[in-house]
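subagent[fold] <- orchestrator: predict structure for attached chain, return tokens only, no commentary.
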Amino acid sequence: MENFRAALTEYALDYANAKMRPESNGKHAFAEVGFSYLCLAFDEPKLFRYLYMSGESGYTGGGLEFLFQKSGNAELIKQIAKESGLSVRKIRAYFTNTLVYTHGLACFIASGLLKITKQQAKKMMNEAANQFWSEIKN
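subagent[fold] -> orchestrator:
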């Protein structure tokens, strides 16, 4: 049964990651992934809850440090730092704040506690991300 669970989780993660793969670069790619994450919560709430909320999948992700080191994310953080002229430390703070906010919003959506449209969710995510960006620029 454990092998089945591991295979199911791997397949589910591959599916979710494919849906969240950005087509652009830099800060736009980060926003694209965030909105795709919200769309996964809207379109596939059971899958979202299985992977990211319930603990049933066994997927833990490795915490925020794991996300920083993940190949695509590490390059994206460096790219945004270079484009913006801000330090990697500041971009990591932006990344953390935006990620935590977006995950919370997605959890409310996937659990049915928040009844909003995708566009409303995107607006909320963008407004929060813009505020976090303003904070690191100072």
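orchestrator: received. Logging for downstream: The chain has seven helices and no strands. Residues 42 and 117 are 9 Å apart (CA to CA).
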